[in-house]
Amino acid sequence: QVQLVESGGGLVQAGASLRLSCAASGRTFTNYAMGGWFRQAPGKDREFVAAIRWSGVGTTYADSVKGRFTISRGTTKDTMYLQMNSLKPEDTAVYYCATGFPVRRVDQAAEYDYWGQGTQVTVSS
After folding, report:
1. b/e sequence 20-43, b meaning 16+ C-beta within 10 Å
2. How confident is the model at residue 1 (pLDDT cuts 50, 70, 90)?
C-alpha cells in the first residue's frame, strides 16, 4: 500500500506564497499514474486543484488557481509539490495530495486511490 503525507501549510497574509509537499512511501508508481492536489473548505465539497502525470510531463489546473499555482514532481520519485503564489482568502482550505492509477478524469476525487491526511492553509485578508 501507499502512504502519503502532506506538509507546508500554515497561516499567511493575502498575496503571500506557500509550497506544499507530498511525500509518498510504500511502493513505486509507474509513469502513467497521476498525482493530484485537492482542497476542502469548511462546509464545502472537496474540489480539484491540480494534477500531474507521474512522469512529470502533463499538468492540469482548476480555473480558480490557473496562473497562480504550480504542481510539480520532486527530484525523487516519491515527492510532489504545489507551489502557491498570490494567495487569496478564498484559497483557505485543507489541502490533500492523492495518487491513482488508472485515472481517467483527473478532476474527480473518486478516481484517486490513495490520500494524505491533509494540511491546513489559511489566508487572511
Report:
1. bbbbbeeeebeeebbbbbbbeeee
2. confident
